[in-house]
Design brief:
Layout lengths: L1 E6 L11 E5 L6 H12 L6 E8 L7 H4 L5 E8 L2 E7 L13 E6 L2
Parallel strand pairs: 1-6
Antiparallel strand pairs: 1-2, 3-4, 3-6, 4-5
């Protein structure tokens, strides 16, 4: 199964590799998918960066639709190139249980 990811730019000129298709297995948990695959897709930054993860969202949507509160499912905390923490809203569950193949990652402010 594939999840189509898109992400926010983190700096001027950051247009490289902002979309990807990541494979996950049936029954794979969201925490595992975020920690092992999504966090590796997110770019290197200096210091701590917290990413908000939105399901059923993509970069071509209006911001209010793409980053709607009810679509926010998790946070990924990265220090430089390492994932140090994944927080799941409402408890961990299988990626397939969300019923979508779209995920958007935005820097949490």
């Amino acid at each position: 199964m594939l999840m189509h990811l898109s992400r926010e730019s983190v700096s001027n000129g950051d247009d490289y590799n902002r979309c990807a298709d990541l494979e996950y297995q049936e029954g794979e948990m969201l925490s595992t998918f975020l920690r092992s695959k999504v966090s590796n897709f997110l770019p290197y930054t200096n210091g701590l960066t917290v990413w908000a993860i939105y399901m059923d969202s993509e970069e071509n949507q209006e911001i209010s639709e793409r980053e709607a509160f009810e679509k926010k499912v998790a946070f990924i905390h990265k220090i430089e190139n390492r994932c140090v923490k994944v927080e799941i809203k409402g408890g961990d569950r299988a990626v397939s249980s969300f019923g979508t193949d779209k995920m958007y990652c935005a820097v949490y402010r």
